[in-house]
C-alpha cells in the first residue's frame, strides 16, 4: 500500500470518527437542518433532492477538466444499455481522447461511481450539484488539496433521456 493510500485511509477513519461525533451532538441538541460534508469537517446546508436512477439509454454533453489525466475535453456522449455507444469529441482535447482512449469516456453512472469512491476513501473534496430531478450536473473531486493535478471537474449538460 502506498504512502498516499495509507494517508487517505487514516484521514478517512479520522473523518468518520469526527462525523460520528458531530452527528451525535447534532442529534442531541441540533435542529437537524445541517448535514456534514464528505470530510466531516464543516457543516453544509442539507440538500433534499430527488434520487436519480440512471436510465439504460440517454445522451449528454460532458465538459471534463482539471487535473492531469486522459479524460480532458468536451464530449457528446450517447449511452445505450448502460454503455457508451457513441462519443464525439467537441474540441481538440475531446477528439484526441475519443481517438486514443475511447474506454475513458464515461457514462453518468461511472462519474457518480467515481464520486462515491472519492467520498468513501476520504478525498478532501467530493461534491456534486444536482438538478431538481436529481441528476448530477456538476461533480468535483479533489483527492488531496495539497497535491497538484489530482482534481477532476465534470460539467454535465444537454441531457436527453431515451436517445
Keywords:
163 residues; six-stranded antiparallel sheet; two-stranded antiparallel sheet; disordered N terminus
Structure description:
This protein is α+β, with helices and mostly antiparallel strands. It is 30% helix and 33% strand. The chain has three helices and eight strands. It has helices at residues 3-29, 92-100, 108-120, and strands at 34-36, 43-45, 58-65, 73-80, 83-89, 125-130, 136-142, 151-161. The strands form two sheets. It has a six-stranded antiparallel beta sheet. The chain is globular. Mean pLDDT is 79; it is low at 1-47.
Q: Approximately what portion of the residues adopt beta-strand conformation?
A: 25-35%
Q: Over the alpha carbons, how many angstroms does the gyration radius reach?
A: 18 Å
Terminus-to-terminus distance: 43 Å
Largest sheet: 6 strands, antiparallel
Give a topology summary.
Blueprint: H1 3-29, E1 34-36, E2 43-45, E3 58-65, E4 73-80, E5 83-89, H2 92-100, H3 108-120, E6 125-130, E7 136-142, E8 151-161
Antiparallel strand pairs: 1-2, 3-4, 3-8, 4-5, 6-7, 7-8
Quick take:
This protein has helices at 3-29, 92-100, 108-120; strands at 34-36, 43-45, 58-65, 73-80, 83-89, 125-130, 136-142, 151-161.
Amino acid at each position: 500500500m502506498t504512502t498516499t493510500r495509507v494517508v487517505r485511509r487514516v484521514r478517512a477513519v479520522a473523518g468518520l470518527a469526527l462525523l460520528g461525533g458531530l452527528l451525535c451532538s447534532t442529534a442531541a441538541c441540533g435542529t437537524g437542518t445541517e448535514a456534514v460534508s464528505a470530510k466531516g469537517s464543516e457543516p453544509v446546508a442539507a440538500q433534499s433532492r430527488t434520487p436519480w436512477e440512471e436510465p439504460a439509454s440517454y445522451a449528454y454533453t460532458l465538459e471534463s477538466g482539471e487535473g492531469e489525466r486522459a479524460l480532458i475535453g468536451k464530449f457528446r456522449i450517447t449511452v445505450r444499455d448502460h454503455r457508451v455507444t457513441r462519443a464525439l469529441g467537441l474540441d481538440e482535447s475531446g477528439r484526441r481522447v475519443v481517438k486514443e482512449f475511447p474506454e475513458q469516456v464515461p457514462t453518468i453512472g461511472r462519474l457518480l461511481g467515481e464520486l462515491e469512491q472519492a467520498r468513501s476513501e476520504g478525498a478532501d473534496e467530493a461534491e456534486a450539484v444536482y438538478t431538481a430531478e436529481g441528476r448530477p450536473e456538476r461533480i468535483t473531486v479533489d483527492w488531496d488539496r495539497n497535491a497538484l493535478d489530482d482534481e477532476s471537474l465534470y460539467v454535465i449538460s444537454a441531457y436527453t433521456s431515451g436517445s
